[in-house]
């Protein structure tokens, strides 16, 4: 008997009990669907969180003075900046960049003081790199003619009860570690989608800093936006030689927790998917054991007339695998269409807005499943179906043809 | 030729042992048409199981064409059954998902016979059992008598030396029984195939040329007509 005949018999056997096969197939379809939607939500949340971080504050690459990260003294400025700017301006892979003065200090008003990081920016440069201007929920993004206006995060504004035109004082240490205070008026309040960021960062014009600190020039941070995030390591490595005093970091070097979450996500999702499929495999095994019990006489007869154990084993294996393989394309296709739909339309999660903001995610979730995940899920289903087929097949081999056929 | 020498099959050896077949010596020559009869529990089915290599005797030997089949290992006995013995079951035991033609062809597929030879043999057998017109029907679309005729054709497909049939007419009406027995008699006469039946059915006993009666696992009579 050739393998094609065995496959043909197995295929027809699958459809002997249509209702039972249908129930198993539907359970596998829903298992695949559930698993892929779980993947879609996880990847969607993670990508949203990563994009939010990259667009709002990380960018693709950042350059700092090596000592700045340790001390945060304003004297540790980016070294060899003109040469770096020249290189970046001539690089087609760079979309835009900005130069920031960073001050670590306190923001105070009559309601209290909070530790913050002040980003001194050139608004016209900054809007090409970060999207904070799109996140203004009250006031405006540096449209005032005054120099001493400030943008504060919603969380910080709530903590200090800040309104538009409220006055605040920023206190920080200058190059000589002497305290310096600058007065600002709130021009805008932003909500980035990351409440931790909103509670600890403010934006001012860099002019407002340089005007008030005599003899200060230069910048502490240079965020760079590239045409493709995947080019970050390539560009980073080319920028490193410009100064040994600088540190050039890609987004995943700066925010290691985000990078780690990205790496871990796939592994964790495979584990969850495997748990779902193992659960399903018990259903498949149970169904096949029932089918074997019902067909004991027939299997006994096949053994009697000369079908060897290997072929009996293969026949039951094929039947079990077919159950999963029939479900697989339907499960993948239905998942694909649902994922595609919600990757465009998104799901409104505003009911859990506060929790998501703490997590650094906006209120609209867009599904995302990388193409390779579909292949991996297909392979996992195939492997699980093969494993599921072994036990029923072994049980079939234990059938005694004399007892099974009764009359023979 | 089939020969059993001191064939015994004892269930539950030890405390509650049951001697289903008790020291049976018998000889079946080529072309015989034999009925093995006896009351329920007399050991007819166990005897045929041992002769067909489906069950291992507790002691004694079964020789088929001089070969002691009780000494064959698991895979060898399967191959032996496949090539030399045809089985007809009381409840037909056809594969429900295959058509009549495919059920017959299956034995030949197991034997690895090429497609052309298979097709020719299947058509020949379907004509012999008068089912050619119904060859594409599945067992559920055939009557009991028709199914048993397919089972006979299946048993003959591998051109076995002999056919063992256990109560083949037990589930059939008179007309179907008569039709089946006609077919089997014709095959026996024309193709010299040895048939051994176990049966209660007087109609089968009447058609047999030899009747062996078993009681408590022993042969109590062996008559030739």
UniProtKB/TrEMBL annotation, chain B:
Entry's Gene Ontology cellular component terms: membrane protein complex; plasma membrane
Ranges of residues in domain ABC transporter: 2-225
GO MF annotation, one: ATP binding
UniProt keyword annotations, A-Z: ATP-binding, Nucleotide-binding, Transport
InterPro entries membership: AAA+_ATPase (IPR003593), ABC_transporter-like_ATP-bd (IPR003439), ABC_transporter-like_CS (IPR017871), ABC_transpr_LolD-like (IPR015854), MacB-like_ATP-bd (IPR017911), P-loop_NTPase (IPR027417)
CDD domains: ABC_MJ0796_LolCDE_FtsE
PANTHER family: ABC TRANSPORTER ABCH.1, IMPORT ATP-BINDING PROTEIN
Protein name per its UniProtKB record: ABC transporter domain-containing protein
